Amino acid sequence: MKFKPPKCLPTLTISSLDEAEIVNKILQSVDIPYLEITLRSTVSMEAIEYISDQANINLGIGTVLNTNQLINLPIPKIKFVVSPGFNEDVAIFCKENDIEYIPGIETSTEIIKALNHGFDILKFFPAEFAGGVQKLKALSSIFPNVSFMCTGGINLENYKKYIELPNVCSVGGSFVLPKKLIKAEYVSEAINHLNLL
Fold first, then answer.
1. Which of 132, 100, 143 has the alpha carbon at shortest distance from 4?
2. Which residue of 8, 37, 162, 165 has the lowest C-beta tally within 10 Å?
3. Domain ranges of the chain
4. Distance between CA atoms of 174 and 38, rounded to whole angstroms?
């Protein structure tokens, strides 16, 4: 599978099965086939299992720092893994399990290292604090074949500046699908919010 995320990628920490069911309902209604669930302390393994069983969603796991975090997950159903930096063990694990790996970068040295390991879709993090749009413009001429998935400091006020860049394949953050909208009574509002992005 080649990673082809939507321009605005829902990136969430899902804390319960109820939340997972609501997120699934929202995403199916707007036809967004990708979701990144971040591995934070409050994440629900039950929620990950549920989302991984949804036929129309390509499930990704984010904030992956090492392979130990992946051991108890439904590996055959995970489509991509995202790290804030490059981890060779995670890269090997993903290759062995046919999972797309998107390592995080901040500098040109890190980009070169990722390219040398065969990765050309990279997470630019923390985007706003690492040079933002101007840095991405500068990197485009040096690394014309690299696409960036950007997170960190991106919000409703600045996200369009990122997705307009030819070397940005996606942006993510809490603004894409705010936690406050992941409630049964706000499903319609969440759908409208995503349709406006």
1. 100
2. 165
3. 8-192
4. 11
The closest of 81, 85, 137 to 106, measured between CA atoms, is 85
* pLDDT score of 70: 95
pLDDT digit of tens for each residue in the chain (197 aa)?
577 899 999 999 999 999 999 999 999 999 899 999 999 888 899 999 999 999 899 999 999 999 999 999 999 999 999 999 999 999 999 999 999 999 999 999 999 999 999 999 999 999 999 999 999 999 999 999 999 999 999 999 999 999 999 999 999 999 999 999 999 999 999 999 999 99
Q: What is the CATH number of domain 8-192?
A: 3.20.20.70
**Active-site annotation holds for 36:** yes
Please pick, among 19, 79, 123, 128, the residue that the annotation labels catalytic: 123
Q: How far, in Å, CA of 151 to CA of 132, rounded?
A: 10
Tokens of 11: 């990136």
pTM above 0.90, yes or no: yes
Look up residue 120 and give its two tokens: 């050309």
Which helix H or strand E contains 190, and what residues bound it?
Answer: helix 187-196
Q: Which two tokens mark 102?
A: 């998107």
79: part of which helix (H) or strand (E)?
A: strand 78-82
- Determine whether 113 is an active site residue: no
